[in-house]
Amino acid sequence: MKTIMIHEMPNHAGETVRIGAWLANKRSSGKIAFLQLRDGSGFVQAVVVKEVVGEEIFAKAKSITQESSLYITAEVTVDDRSTFGYELQVKDIEIISVAIDYPITPKEHGTEFLMDHRHLWLRSRKQHAVMKIRDEVIRATYDFFHMNGFVKVDPPILTGSSPEGTSELFKTKYFDEDAFLSQSGQLYMEAAAMALGKVFSFGPTFRAEKSKTRRHLIEFWMIEPEMAFVQHAESLEIQEQYVAHVVQSALKNCPLELERLGRDLSKLEKIKAPFPRISYDDAIKFLIEKGFDDIVWGDDFGAPHETAIAESYDMPVFITHYPVGIKPFYMQLHPDRDDVVLCADLIAPEGYGEIIGGSERIHDYELMKKRIQEHGLEESAYEWYLDLSKYGAVPHSGFGLGLERTVAWISGVEHVRETIPFPRLLNRLYP
Q1: Is the pLDDT of residue 207 over 90?
Q2: Which of 214, 215, 156 is nearest to 186 (CA)?
Q3: Is the model's pLDDT at 198 over the cut of 90?
Q4: In what residue span(s) does the Aminoacyl-transfer RNA synthetases class-II family profile domain sit (predicted)?
Q5: Residue 155 sits in a domain of what CATH number?
Q6: CA 70, 71, 74, 76 torsion: positive or negative?
Q7: Is residue 102 situated within a structural domain?
């Protein structure tokens, strides 16, 4: 007899199979028991009929507890009433392990309780769906960049300096010198782009930012492409093509998961390139007209400002050409202005905020050196980075996409803490 997983059931309609699973929930009605099973690949209902299986097996079905593990022998049948389209007609049950007093019951639980039991909360239907969508975004990311000639490169996690030039870094000792957990692999990816042309990285980043908003994590994952001989306008086109690709891939390959989360698919179906663009200058004027009287040119945008701008569009929107003073040292100046840089933030619809930050990078040696000095950075720590603009410098651009914010937007979940398996928050390092 073939042992299969739930997601393989459509290939075995009419066959008797064996499945290893956990009991997510159950109900019974007289001489019939309905077992809601999960095996990691999906969820399915198993029907246990007393007249078919006999007293002993039916008693097992009625007594088995939530999250107990078991083997089910059953016939795969078509069920048009199920969103999955199939169910199991049980013939035999073998209990592997009995779970006693499983803490997460079908009733409502508070967020802190669920976060304390994150290792178990991951088993729920909603969390399972979010993790599957996260996996699809990652798969689609590799697919997009490899199709477009990018090479995957892994920058270091331990670094001796900060690409953003901020103090929000986790400091550690590297033998007899100071080191930091990386907040971005960008500078190293620029070096890789000078060797390999078009590259991307995918890895964890760390921000010691004391923020408790629904958009922030202390540890999160970033996709960071860098592209030689690519200037600002072309970079924006690549960004919108990439985001459209992952959204459409999620729609195509995760329909059950999106339905389980109650996501409005019509809002995702329209996400196709090109995306609208608004300059920082025009965004300031727009916000003042909307009643944000306290904002002035030169201020950075907070969550309320980004949300107000995003609400005017039903697509992700680029905000371009921010002031020099609020952006990192490595961004290329506008060719016709010395007060703004060639950059853009991509703001997701529906209040999910910035999902991409990107820019054309400086490739002039003297200008790069000047900007490092203006930002008060230690030049010796950036000597290797300055070499990139000394030896064969070319125009180049790059960006970083925050995985968790993107997954939150596609999934429609409220908080990014649900989009990473084990979130690290300001008040949480457990489990």
Answers
A1: yes
A2: 156
A3: yes
A4: 131-431
A5: 3.30.930.10
A6: positive
A7: no
Domain CATH for 59: 2.40.50.140
pLDDT confidence band for 396 (50 / 70 / 90): very high
Burial 77-97 (b: 16+ CB within 10 A, else e): eebeeeeeebbbbbbebeeee
The answer on 161 and 286 residing in a single domain is yes
DSSP string computed for 172-212: EEETTEEEEE-S--HHHHHHHHHHHSEEEEEEEEE------
Q: What angle do CA 330, 335, 339 make, to 5 degrees?
A: 65
Q: Say whether both 78 and 157 belong to one domain.
A: no
Domain identity same for 78 and 142: no
CA–CA separation, 159 and 172 (whole Å): 10
- The answer to whether position 394 is within a domain reads yes
Statement: residue 371 has pLDDT above 70? yes
Across 338-423, the runs of DSSP E, i.e. the strands, are 343-348, 353-361, 396-402
Q: What is the pLDDT of residues 326-340, one digit of tens each?
A: 999 999 999 999 999
Give residue-wise pLDDT tens across range 14-58. 999 999 999 999 999 889 999 999 999 999 999 999 999 999 999
- Give yes or no: residues 268 and 210 share one domain: yes
Same domain, 215 and 156: yes
What 3 state SS string does 296-351 have? CCCCCCCHHHHHHHHCCCCCCEEEECCEHHHCCCCECECCCCCCEECEEEEEECCC
- Structural domain count, the chain: 2
Indicate the pLDDT class of residue 161, thresholds 50, 70 and 90: confident
Element (H, E) at 24: strand 16-29
Q: Distance between CA 61 and CA 93 in Å, rounded? A: 8
Domain shared by 311 and 190, yes or no? yes
Q: Is residue 271 part of a domain?
A: yes
| Rounded-to-integer distance, Cα 90 and Cα 69, Å | 15
Do 158 and 10 share a domain, yes or no?
no
Domain span including residue 22: 6-97
- Per-residue tokens: 373: 């000095």
pTM of the model: 0.96
Asked if residue 261 lies in contact with residue 412, where contact means CB atoms within 8 angstroms, the answer is: yes
pLDDT at position 47 is 98
